[in-house]
Amino acid sequence: MEHIKKLSLMLFAICLSPSLFAESYGSHHREAVYEVTVTNLTKGIAFTPLLAATHRPEMQLFTLGEPSSDNIANVAEGGDISGLKDELDSSSRVANTTSTDGLLTNGQSVTFEISSSRRFSRISLISMLLPTNDTMVSLRAKKLPRRRGQTVHYNMRAYDAGSEANDELCVNIPGPVCGGNPFSAPDDSDEGYSYPSPGIHGEADLAQSLYDWNGPVAKVKIKRIY
């Protein structure tokens, strides 16, 4: 009789284990949704549409001190996020991407939602600063909040893509202020690598008093909704 009881318990455990496994798997792979708010902290700079991606910890949009990819250069020089979005959407290291519409002007905020899952625990954002030659604002692989209802705050800094000379001439700067050419051919005066942006120097068409910045150019609030 004792042997029969033990056998019955074993069979019950075997029958129960698949449901436990399924529950455990679901809790570890359940999609999480985040509300992201970006605020422009500059005096006179506008941001082109932002591209956001949730991804694995090892992924970076760009690496400081190394040449920017063509897709990163397109964002930094012309605010064109289409190629980079396609690249990220096809990557196994990326969970989801989303983008905003229109320009985000100084002092304004934009809010959007993006989803992710357990293995994709980081978020990155990128946009072009206008008016600049090839400067971008980026949040670089920061941790997403883990718990429902939790909120995290980050600062976003400006980076130079190093793909276009910083001549500050309107003929080489797109957007409502300058209306110039968004892209330029490679030149010996290009830095050739990405680095923290030194801001606007006021050497040509851009007044330093109007467009320069010091420190972070944006702040980000990320809240896990569910």
TrEMBL record:
The record's annotation in InterPro entries points to: Spondin_N, Spondin_N_sf
Q: Which residues form the Spondin domain?
A: 46-164
| TM stretches of this protein | none
Supply the Pfam families for this chain: Spond_N
Keywords per UniProt: Signal
Question: Looking at the record's lineage, which domain of life comes first?
Answer: Bacteria
Coiled-coil regions, chain positions: none
The signal peptide here is 1-22
NCBIfam families, sorted: NF038123_dom
The name this protein goes by in its record: Spondin domain-containing protein
